[in-house]
Amino acid sequence: MNDIDAWVWWLVGAVALGIPLVVTAMPEFGMLAVGALVAAGAAGLGFGIVVQVLTFVTVSVALIAVVRPIAARHSSGRPYLPTGIDALKGRQAVVLERVDGSGGRVKLAGEIWSARALDTARAYDVGQEVDVVDIEGATAIVI
Predict the structure, then answer these.
(1) Count of CB atoms within 10 A of residue 123's CB?
(2) Is the four-CA dihedral 78, 81, 86, 90 of positive or negative sign?
(3) Structure confidence by residue, pLDDT tens digits, 42-94
(4) What is the signed CA dihedral for 13, 36, 17, 67, rounded to 10 degrees?
(5) pLDDT mean over 106-116
(6) Residues 48-78 as b or e (16 or more Cβ within 10 Å = b)
(7) How far apart are CA 18 and CA 35, in angstroms?
(8) Percent with pLDDT over 90 in the chain
(9) CA dihedral 56, 59, 61, 67 (to 10 degrees)
(10) Residue 30 backbone phi and psi in degrees, to 5
């Protein structure tokens, strides 16, 4: 195998490692593919097979050792952004019709919701602000 063939084989290896990266979404394959690309560069510059393999191993291991922990730290630190009914829990609403243990109406996030008091012995009058503690179906549970 001459020097021209060596860099072509490294490029084929890089592409072959890129395929599982796309299919499995495992970033380690991408790091190995980058190692193969750097080894192809070493082969293109005329270095022998031992240097090419050492370059591949060194670059791949360095990328996995350095980039992987950084990526893991960033992916686990994503903020929780509540959506749907989870986003309504903890918000304030204004009572439109008296709310007690059996029902009533509130204006919550610009919409009119049926509501029920969490404490069945408590009642909230029109215009009073209440806090939403839960959503059960289409009913806001308030305190």
Answers:
(1) 15
(2) positive
(3) 999 999 999 999 999 999 999 999 998 888 887 776 777 888 889 999 999 99
(4) 180
(5) 95
(6) eeeebeebbeebbeebeeeeeeeeeeeeeee
(7) 11
(8) 75
(9) -140
(10) -65, -40
Q: How many CA atoms, within 13 angstroms, populate the side-chain half-sphere of residue 116?
A: 11
Please say if the pLDDT value at position 122 is more than 90. Answer: yes
Q: Rounded mean pLDDT of 10-16?
A: 94
**Helix segments in the chain, DSSP class H:** 3-24, 27-44, 49-76, 85-88
Name the β-bridge partners of 12: none
Q: Rounded to the nearest 5°, which phi and psi values hold at 63?
A: -65, -45
| pLDDT value at residue 37 | 96
Tallying the residues shown for the chain, one arrives at 143
CA-based angle 87:75:38, to the nearest 5?
Answer: 155
Written as six digits, the tokens of 29 are: 């394959």
Q: What are phi and psi of 31, to 5 degrees?
A: -70, -35
**Residue 39's CB: how many other CB atoms inside 10 A?**
29
**pTM of the full structure:** 0.53
